[in-house]
Design brief:
Pfam families: Acetyltransf_1. The structure is a single chain. The chain has one domain: Gcn5-related N-acetyltransferase (GNAT) (Aminopeptidase, 3-Layer(aba) Sandwich), CATH 3.40.630.30. It is 34% helix and 37% strand. The chain has five helices and six strands; from the N terminus they run H-H-H-E-E-E-H-E-H-E-E. Strand 5 and strand 6 form a beta hairpin.
Length: 163
């Protein structure tokens, strides 16, 4: 997962070359040790997608209901949905997202929310196509440089409860 995450992160964010802040973020957040810590966290779940015996994507979901950066939007957070570039637009991302929604529904969350870098137009279009609404904005700072994000969310359908 560390190698795939680094690949997707740099492919997505380093559109104008690998700047030092992005390099340090990738090396810290996507190291094997960082993933070992996240995998050990009982409040996080990972969903993996494989093809021909290799990892092509994963989703990371926080299973507790939390407040998003957008006012009034609470639910489970989709922390990451990363798909290897050559596997994008093949249904892998949609399948991972569907499984993430099932996890959030099982946790009783009213919605699944996430932040998307405002420069990632393909991801914003992907989420909009799958029913996610733009509900606000947030920023992510790396070493003093602010990156604007959009907060997107989708209400989840819960099975009818019987008395």
């Amino acid at each position: 997962m560390a190698a795939l995450a680094t690949q997707v992160f740099l492919d997505t964010y380093a559109t104008e070359g690998v700047r030092p802040d992005l390099a340090r973020e990738a090396l810290q957040q996507y190291s094997e040790a960082a993933f070992a810590d996240r995998l050990a966290d009982p409040g996080r779940r990972f969903i993996l997608a494989e093809a021909s015996g290799g990892l092509v994507g994963f989703a990371e979901v926080a299973t507790a209901v939390t407040q998003s950066p957008a006012a009034g939007v609470q639910g489970c957070e989709l922390i990451r949905l990363y798909v290897q570039p050559r596997s994008q637009r093949t249904g892998v991302g949609s399948a991972l997202l569907s499984e993430a929604e099932k996890l959030a529904t099982g946790a009783g969350a009213p919605c699944l929310w996430l932040t998307v870098w405002e420069g990632n137009l393909r991801a914003l279009a992907f989420y909009a196509r799958l029913g996610y609404a733009d509900v606000g904005s947030s920023t992510h700072a790396l070493e003093g440089r602010a990156y604007g994000n959009r907060v997107v969310a989708r209400r989840l359908a819960h099975p009818a409860r019987t008395p």
